[in-house]
Predict the structure of Glutaredoxin domain-containing protein.
Amino acid sequence: MLRMQQQVEGALVVGGMAEAEEHQEAAVYERVARMAGGNAVVVFSASGCCMCHVVKRLLLGLGVGPTVYELDQMGGAGREIQAALAQLLSPGPGGGHHQQAPAVPVVFVGGRLLGGVEKVMACHINGTLVPLLKEAGALWL
């Protein structure tokens, strides 16, 4: 009887920890959503990342002044946000490639996830980036 009670109590503790982790993860996603919705264009970046630099220069060259969050300068919160962004960018089950996509840069336009450097560049090349930026209110011309 005592052993069964210990197992049940142990399961409750493990279950409680899982719930706490899920709550913390949900809080990180909510924080990302708040940050991403704070401006027409938001870039989650790392200060020493060359691909982040490319995306920021492209946006600035188009006349967009994005809000930039340098995650490597935010301590533990930056690491949590970067992990959440990596999950958002991952292809999911059956998503094709098995390579882990870099967690930065991540670009949001109009509060909606656009994607990483590949998606931003693809949109720029195929001519859909500027209309997206105009629709979000980041460009007026």
User: Anything to note?
Assistant: The chain is about 55% helix and 10% strand.
